[in-house]
Amino acid sequence: MADNKKMVAQITSMEEDFAKWYTDVCVKADLIAYSSIKGCMIIRPYGYAIWENIQKILDTRFKETGHENVYMPMFIPESLLQKEKDHVAGFAPEAAWVTYGGSEKLTERICVRPTSETLFCEHFADIVKSYRDLPKLYNQWCSVVRWEKTTRPFLRSREFLWQEGHTLHATAEEARAETIQQLNVYADFHEQDLAIPVVKGPKTPSDKFAGAEDTYAIEALMHDGKALQAGTSHYFGDGFAKAFDIKFTDKNNQLAYPHQTSWGVTTRMIGGIIMTHGDDNGLVLPPAVAPIQAVIIPVQQHKEGVLDAAYALRDRLAAAGIRVKCDDSDNTPGWKYSEYEMKGVPLRIELGPRDIESNQCVIVSRVDRSKQFVSLDGIEDTVKASLTAVRDAMYAKAAANREKKTYRCKTLDEITATLAEKGPGFVKAMWCGDEACEDKVKEVTGVGSRCIPFEQEEISDVCVCCGRAAKKMVLWAVAY
Amino acid sequence: MADNKKMVAQITSMEEDFAKWYTDVCVKADLIAYSSIKGCMIIRPYGYAIWENIQKILDTRFKETGHENVYMPMFIPESLLQKEKDHVAGFAPEAAWVTYGGSEKLTERICVRPTSETLFCEHFADIVKSYRDLPKLYNQWCSVVRWEKTTRPFLRSREFLWQEGHTLHATAEEARAETIQQLNVYADFHEQDLAIPVVKGPKTPSDKFAGAEDTYAIEALMHDGKALQAGTSHYFGDGFAKAFDIKFTDKNNQLAYPHQTSWGVTTRMIGGIIMTHGDDNGLVLPPAVAPIQAVIIPVQQHKEGVLDAAYALRDRLAAAGIRVKCDDSDNTPGWKYSEYEMKGVPLRIELGPRDIESNQCVIVSRVDRSKQFVSLDGIEDTVKASLTAVRDAMYAKAAANREKKTYRCKTLDEITATLAEKGPGFVKAMWCGDEACEDKVKEVTGVGSRCIPFEQEEISDVCVCCGRAAKKMVLWAVAY
Questions:
Q1: Tens of pLDDT along B164-193?
Q2: Which end of chain A is more exposed for a tag (fewer CB within 10 A), N or C?
Q3: What is the pTM of this model?
């Protein structure tokens, strides 16, 4: 792994071409590779390890709130997909259709799941009879397929990995509480673990999930001022239950329809991490999901005792539960610095003969390159504290970028002028609730509605578009 | 979950109809459910939790031996599948073919992966240039599709979950060592964790994986005397490397083809657990993979202090790392006993007012129903020891069944007579190495070759079929 890449790969700068910078990072940090399957990507070990860390944290949180994992078939017969009319309208146009099994033409074509509401509904109808069978709190980790025209690694690919929660409740109230609870799990995970500040709120009616009564989202602002929908949680009411004839006997011995939710996050989050935290030196990974949290670089490693001291340090940190690597390859320290910066390793620990003599090492933070000389005594706690500091610095930086790029506007002209002057960002502006105004804002200014933030501000008392009485402040942006 | 199933489900007895008993257990122990997708199954929470435990143990072992997880696309273009001629001949006839993306007919049809050798090869060709890039030790957890005509839960379904390891090495020797190492990981996992004795050895040439130079398998004997191929490990030589033009510069600066392996186990192992250990009361789960290792049944739970003591016991055991559940539902203890027997929970712990008074509880083993009155002092260690005892008893029982049903035969007539008298089982008999004899053994006696065991015995010095000099002892059986 050395000679043939002695030069650390160069990447396009963010300012020059953000889109190119993004794909450069995806490839040069060894997150993905392309294959001959157009629109699908290979997730390489370093990228997949990030996903595994994400899975571990979220799966634990889901289980703590009583959810159980299941596995549904990856195929959906066309007739089953068609049972809920909004749902099929939303997904059939981008489905991948299997028409042959071996050399035999199928009597009914089947699609590779784009999402699994229909499969869960069919199963729920089969197993739910009484209020005692409720709630059903299910989750599934799998891959899904949507036949997109234009694709980008992690952000939009024909196949992607995700989790989809599907729950069924006796009452609307309980299902609504579940919808919000899971939205909060996503928001908290983004803010605490991924160091990505998010805005929470419902989507406007025109932007709901196909078949949902309400869709809630978390929206994050990327470095370039575009928005990323980072997770969604849907309340279905009893619409699917009616379409799939899911009924249960309630406590009063009456037949009733249960209420349903679904919620999901995807490998897209890795795209969000890249575009929120990355810089011209490459990836910057939040410590909670970084495959390597600290890399030890021995300095003058040919000198006696250096490698032994580096291994000892590695073993101490590993024993303390830190994901640590010691790079003892024959590349130069400078090459290694660049390599692990590209890969976004949160902390670099330099250890040379003089450090060893002074019972110290040097800790360099990936996020701001700040350098600390610290004692080897209690180094485990020092490294843990430094990892927390990295997370906090990442969050602060992302929050500052978002603050700088959040604009409060009262008129369409103000939106246009502000974006022209300051560049893309979140626009906060009032809305009357009319879909025609929502469309016009997008048509005239280019920004679409992202969500109606729970945290409302009163920017003005009239709609930014039509001047009629405003109902809500909406968050607008150009989105990925 | 109570009223509507106050009666514990009855299942067909093993003796009456083993196949029916098997599917009864799959359904009544809540492992699976059927859906409208013919040949695919829903893996329910209790079944999926077994798979998650299997995954955790194996994934840790794979990583300890240096393997990294990746994720390849689920689709393979037909032209890519065709690059290795034996491989495409083996898999194309049972592939599920996608021909439409949305409303658009694809210019080339693509199949849903039946296995991913071709995808890994394409990727290896892309990323491997020098001996410094080797070995590549990759693994993938995913689902695959094979369009089978007849299907059975876990044993043979159109979609199934598995892991597939794919590794690439500079030398044949290293690749061969990897093939055997992973076979041993599988064998050890089956024997230690699943309590299933296995026979290891290469397949006969006619029974190799499509495109492999050598295929090794572990073979287990089910309760009914049929064999189950429980895991395979393949050595490919450089055949795929040549077909996919994977080359590297070796230490002498010469271009060379690397050597390759793949190895996999699937959800089929859950079928193996059921058919090795189950009985007429239902499932019997090996403690290492049981979602619930011990269930506490409070006796006379309405009496003061009983539930509190049961919860306290549960918390103590959980704190000790035991997967424990306390069933405080209003079902009768008798109902609960049957329910958790059906679900194969290794240990039942009964705790009533008199036990509490005597500072004791009752531990009942699922495997032999042995009953122990034990002190609550040090109960954590007692339960752990009992779990080990359950595993050992399960292994001993399975090994005894296998021993009883293993027959050493010298002639075809002897095979036929033995099987007629004693029922299906493993037949050990000598083979000359000729495929015609292999075919004839199957045609005449009904048993096919399972593998050529590493542990050879000299049953005779001539082939069981033709009477010519014998080369090897082969293990023969009717297989799932």
A1: 999 999 999 999 999 999 999 999 999 999
A2: N
A3: 0.96
